[in-house]
Specification:
Elements (H helix, E strand, L loop, with lengths): L1 H36 L12 H4 L3 H15 L5 H6 L3 E2 L4 E5 L5 H8 L5 E3 L10 H4 L3 H6 L3 E2 L4 E5 L2 H4 L3 H8 L4 E6 L2 H18 L7 H5 L12 H5 L2 H8 L8 E5 H6 L1 H11 L11 E4 L4 E5 L5 E2 L14 H22 L7
Parallel strand pairs: 2-5, 2-6, 3-5, 6-7
Antiparallel strand pairs: 1-4, 8-9, 9-10
Helix pairs in contact: 13-16
The protein binds adenosine-3'-5'-diphosphate (A3P).
Keywords: Disulfide bond, Glycoprotein, Golgi apparatus, Membrane, Signal-anchor, Transferase, Transmembrane, Transmembrane helix
InterPro entries: NST/OST, P-loop_NTPase, Sulfotransferase_dom
Organism: Alectura lathami (Australian brush turkey)
């Protein structure tokens, strides 16, 4: 009897021991694979000393977590000092174009360990009231970051606002400027769709796109309609070129960012002199959303809000043709100036 009990106990101990060793082996393998998911290579010298580059992935994620807490205002002064965090003026700005994919571009660039985004549109340079508050007000609106990181903000109103180029030039004449564009007619319809949704939310009625885009008196394209004017990219860009050389701009293909984001992001990394860190691992297609979503690590991923990727209303084909014909010469000029050609009709 005693012998039987001892044998049973030994059997139980053996099973428990095997389970413990198995779990330990699984954990070791899993932690190892976490590091392999996104190997960290040295960051370009511009972004700080080598010691910063050697932060292992998990430590980096921890630091990003900390940054997130600080951004929410949960940091004490002591923590900020201890971690050497600063609020830096942006080294690059996404200046437009509205409905071009500015939010997607900012969020996707934020996947890069050397980039920190300003979450809100600051509207410092286009809003006189904000601008009057001064550059320190603007800097205080920036997120906390490590000194080797770069801050990026996006305010698409900058692209079309008269005073903005000069104001940005006064802050930093060598700043890098990102412009994300889409096929101009599609962008105009997207712009209209956003305004329409706002009106519907307030139970207001609104004109049809056709009525706004075409002047009923002349039957020509209505250049007074803001959604049309914004899509004349070359007109706006020419104003910016009075202050900045074309080399300081990078044009992002917003239509390609929707269907194939990685190569577009890699071009931006190059333009910003960032080492290539965003990989296919960071971007996955979500069939329900119909868009690429973002994967920061094994536990944290997100898609853009539902307000990005609205269904556009049907627009009369003759109006679309008219608009495309109208934009054509402006597009040609835009290709010529920027050196980037698109397959727009
Ligand atoms: P639509 O709503 O017309 O589809 P912005 O951020 O400048 O307002 O641009 C909005 C546009 O970003 C959307 O226009 C959408 O097509 C585009 N976009 C690009 N990549 C996206 C993504 N991954 N998720 C959602 N929208 C994306």
């Amino acid at each position: 009897m005693l012998f039987k009990q001892q044998a049973l106990l030994r059997q139980k101990l053996f099973v428990l021991g095997s389970l413990a060793i198995g779990s330990l082996l699984y954990l070791v393998a899993r932690v190892g694979s976490l590091d392999r998911l996104q190997p960290l290579c040295p960051i370009d010298g511009r972004f700080g000393p080598r010691s910063q580059d050697d932060i292992p992935l998990r430590a980096l994620q921890f630091k990003r977590g900390l940054l997130h807490e600080f951004r929410k205002g949960n940091a004490t002064k002591e923590q900020i000092r201890l971690h050497n965090l600063v609020q830096q003026l942006p080294k690059a700005i996404i200046i437009g174009v509205r409905k071009g994919g500015t939010r997607a571009l900012l969020e996707m660039l934020n996947l890069h360990p050397a980039v920190v985004k300003a979450s809100q549109e600051i509207h410092f340079f286009d809003n006189d009231e904000n601008y009057a508050k001064g550059i320190e007000w603007y800097r205080k609106k920036m997120p906390f970051s490590y000194p080797h990181q770069i801050t990026i903000e996006k305010s698409p109103a900058y692209f079309i606002t008269e005073e903005v180029p000069e104001r940005i030039y006064k802050m930093n004449s060598s700043i890098k400027l990102l412009i994300i564009v889409r096929e101009p007619t599609t962008r105009a319809i997207s712009d209209y769709t956003q305004v329409l949704e706002g009106k519907e939310r307030k139970n207001k009625t609104y004109y049809k796109f056709e009525k706004l885009a075409i002047d009923p008196n002349t039957c020509e394209v209505n250049t007074k309609y803001k959604a049309v004017r914004t899509s004349i990219y070359t007109k706006h860009l020419e104003r910016w070129l009075k202050y900045f050389p074309i080399e300081q701009f990078h044009i992002v293909d917003g239509d390609r960012l929707i269907t194939e984001p990685l190569p577009e992001l890699q071009l931006v990394e190059k333009f910003l002199n960032l080492p290539p860190r965003i990989s296919q691992y960071n971007l996955y297609f979500n069939a329900t959303r119909g868009f690429y979503c973002l994967r920061f690590n094994v536990v944290f991923n997100k898609c853009l809000a539902g307000s990005k990727g609205r269904i556009h209303p049907e627009v009369d084909t003759s109006v679309i043709t008219k608009l495309r014909k109208f934009f054509h010469p402006f597009n040609q000029k835009f290709y010529q100036i920027t050196g980037r050609t698109f397959n727009w009709p």
